[in-house]
Each structure stands twice: as C-alpha cells, then as structure tokens.
Amino acid sequence: MTTADGRDFRIEESTIAGIHKAFTEKKLTCRQLVDHYLNQIEALNPLLRAVVEVNPDAGDLADDADTRWEACGGDGRLLGELHGIPVLVKDSIGTGDKLNTTAGSYSLLGSVVARDATVVERLRLAGAILMGKASMSEWYRIRSLDRLPNGWCARSGQGVNPYVKSADPCGSSSGSAISVAANMVAVSLGTDTHSSIICPSDHNSVVGIRPTVGLVSRAGVIPISSRQDTVGPICRTVSDAVFVLDAIVGFDPRDGEATKRSSGLIPDGGYKQFLNADGLRGKRLGVVRHPFVTALHGSIVAQAFEHHLHALRENGATLLDNLEIENVDRILNPRQSGEITAMMADFKLSINEYLNGLVSSPVRSLADIIAFNEKNAELEKNNEYGQDGLIEAENTSLSEEEAKKIVETLDELSQEGFEKMMRENELDAMVTPGTMAIPVMAIGGYPGITVPGGYDEDGKPFGMLFSGLKGMEPKLIEIAYAFELATRVRQPPSFGSPERDVHSPVHDLDVF
C-alpha cells in the first residue's frame, strides 16, 4: 500500500515487528492496517470461508489504538507487545462483545458468554485488536467423525485451502490457519485437542504452536477434553507465534488445576528470548522413521524431509536416526488406544457444564444440541453429514473406574513410548514430516511446533513438526526458529496473480 506521505509499506506477509516498525516510522496506522484486512476478508472470504464473523467494532478499536500510540510518543515499548495487531480467534473461543461464540453451529447462535475467555482478555491487555471469529470444523468435527469434512461448519460452509482448492484444509482450527495463510489477518488463535492447531497449520503453510496442556488457560473456551485441550497461536512466522504465546500463557484461577501444574514451566522473561538464530547448535534431534517417514516413501515430502535433515545437521544439530516409539501403532489408532472413548465421555460432561454456564443460550445440554439439529435439519444442513459423533458422545457412559483405566492406559503408552525414547536418548526434540505423529503429542499433553516444510507435486503444503516433552517449549522454539531461518520455505498463496488462477495448484514453488 502507498501511505499518505507517498512511502510504501507492504502489508502482505508483514510480521508483528515489521508492523510496529511501520507504525513508528509513520508508514502505517492501525486503522489503515485494519481496513486492509477487512478488505481482504471481504474479497477472499466468499472463496475461502475462513471467517465466520467480523467484529463490527474493529474500526473503532483501531482508532483507539492509534490514539494511544500517539499519546505515548510512538514508543511501542510503553504499550503491549501486540499493540495494534489484528487477530482472529477460533469460533469456540468466547468473547464478551458483539461477536457470537458458536463452534460453527447454529444451535449456539445468539448465546451469550459471561465474559471474555482468559486468552482473549490477555490478547486485549497486550494491545491486540480482535478482528472477528475464524471458522472451524463444527463442534471440532465431533459432530460426525466419519462423515464431516475438515473445515466444514453450518454457519460458514466449507473452508478452502488457499493453495489448492481441492486439498484438505484440515481442522478443526481450519479458518484460523486459512486466514493467516491468505493474509486476511496478521495472526490468529486456534485450539488443539488431537490435531487442531498442528494439522491445519501444516496443510496451509503456516506456523502453529501446540503448547503443553495447562500452559495456556482454557477458561471461556468451548471444551472437549480437560486432559488434552490447549490453546495456541497460528501465524506466518515462528517469531510472531512466540510473541502471541508470550501474551497468553500463565496461571489462571478459572482454569486453576491445569494452569497451576504448568505455570512453573514458563521461563522467567518469557519465550521470545529463545528466538535464537543459532538455536540448532548442540541440539539432539530424534528421527523415528517407522511409520512417520516410511509411509511417505518415494514422495516429494520424503525427499524434502531428507533435505531438511541435512539442513538441520549443517546448522549444528545432532540427529539420532532410526529410533523407535514403543506401541506406536496402537498410539496412532485413537479407537484402539482408548483416546476417542475418553474424549467422547469428557466432551459430554464438559459441554453440558459449559452450556449451563452461559448467560443465555438456545441449548443447555448435548441432548438439546442433538434435538436442535434434528428440528432444524435444513438450517444445519445435517441431512448430508448427520450428527453420529454427537449422538455417540451422548450415549457414551463410563464408570469412574472405566474412565480411570483408560487414562492410565494413555499415560502408560506415553511414558513407555515417547517419554522413554526422549529421555533415554537425551533428545531435545523429535522431528517428523507432516502430521502423522500428532497422536503421540495429543495423548500425553505434549507440545509441538510445525513450520512450513515445502509443497508437494500438486502444490499442497506440508510442514516439519518438532515435538517435545512437557515444558520443552524453549528448546522447540530455538529449533523451529533456527530451522525457519535456515530454510525459508513459506510462500504466500497466489491470490491476485494475473498469470495463475487463484485455485490452481502452485506447481512452480520450490519444494525445498
């Protein structure tokens, strides 16, 4: 864009640091930035279906941010780390404003939350501007685990991968990833229970951080599993994701037990101190080839993975190859491990509690949601996808002893599998291509960071996933940041390019 004084500043692909520099140099105002993203949403959302609602107060919030910037003499250090930065939050994250919080479902349209979710409170305190709600797989795809497409919800329709129209956008934080990838917003927030930050970030060529469970408060977020739910950033760069992470972590009495356990894992001075360009030097990285690499044999993704392993070595990391995770095949089967059963039972209890805590709501129980869908089949468009997942959750009933046994099994699989491999080999991270390793993190509440790793023969993005034990975010950040700087793989989708249809595969991007 051309600013009032004739100087250019390119908003596309801009980072938080770049935006703040532009504010300081008077190349950009917060209002100009917000208006740009609103225009992007208006232009692209009919194609991508990434945004459910836009905040009607976004412009006023931007004007207020500009006033405060001028009042402090243009010294952003006196304001929050995210001052003036537009953010979208997933439609399951509560906001005490004019926006709805519906998990993509018409059954919660018009419901009223008691207050902002804690993560939204912290974003506002850091100076961020809430632009609106990102679309998602309805009810985290629990609505129908077997039939509901990733990225679909009744309220906004089918989310579309901005790189290849026919490609899976993944979910359930699909809109959060699509909108950031397509430069419809600066940064976003997603949630992750099993794969919902890592997978859409991987599939849409952006950075996603799944924090250790309990590092970030879940208070005010529509729940699935108290054991596995976490909230984290989805951004275009590791540094932006870390700035957002710093703003949202910490103890919260509203999510007391989980955040109390994890608050001691947060380093003094936060996480941005670990944005170290030399962060790979001396790190020990584990490579588990079966099944995460062998399943990709001969593909461009497998070739790129080997190329990236070479880059990791070249930048000072030691790779321990051909490691194994005990019972990995069982871990990767959520039905066999018991993860799905535990998740469904937890969802039934936690969603009923959440609904009863709303100030007002058309539904007050999971049974009410199911009845609403049956009564409003045309509105909910559920003739095609049904709601077998919601019904399964409603019919799931575990005794205290049965639930305890499943949790003990999941803990044992984690301790004797991933944890044992990490500790015995003194690893700083496990590195895997794509998303196949996600269940390893999910069942143990472990953190992970995915960074763009390339594009396959059809132009579909894939990422490099760095996973660690609880509280290992500092090491993961160092590794991911240094890897990102060494490879610089991410390319924006080709919207607006006259020589290429916006939905065509991006064949000519460098795979590496």
Describe this structure in words.
The structure is a single chain. The protein is α/β, with parallel strands linked by helices and 512 residues long. It has a single domain, classed as Amidase signature (AS) enzymes, CATH 3.90.1300. It contains 19 helices and 13 strands. An eleven-stranded mixed β-sheet has the order 1-3-2-6-8-7-12-13-11-9-10, sandwiched between helices. The chain has a two-stranded antiparallel sheet with strand order 4-5. Helix 9 links the parallel strand 9 and strand 10 (318-320). Helix 2 (30-48) packs antiparallel against helix 3 and helix 17 packs across helix 18. The protein is globular. The two termini are 30 Å apart. The model is unreliable at 2-6 and 496-512 (pLDDT under 50).
Weakly predicted, low-confidence segments: 2-6, 496-512
What percentage of residues falls in helices of 4 or more residues? 25-40%
Give me the CATH architecture, please: Alpha-Beta Complex
Percent of sequence in beta strands: 5-15%
Which term fits the overall shape? globular
CATH top level?
A: Alpha Beta
Strand numbers in spatial order across the main sheet: 1-3-2-6-8-7-12-13-11-9-10
Structural class: alpha/beta
**End-to-end separation:** 30 Å
> What radius of gyration results from the CA coordinates?
22 Å
Integer average pLDDT: 93
> Helix count, per DSSP?
19
CATH topology grouping: Amidase signature (AS) enzymes
List the domain count as a whole number: 1
Number of E-type strands: 13
Main sheet properties: 11 strands, mixed
InterPro entries: Amidase_dom, AS_sf
Protein name: Amidase domain-containing protein
Pfam families: Amidase
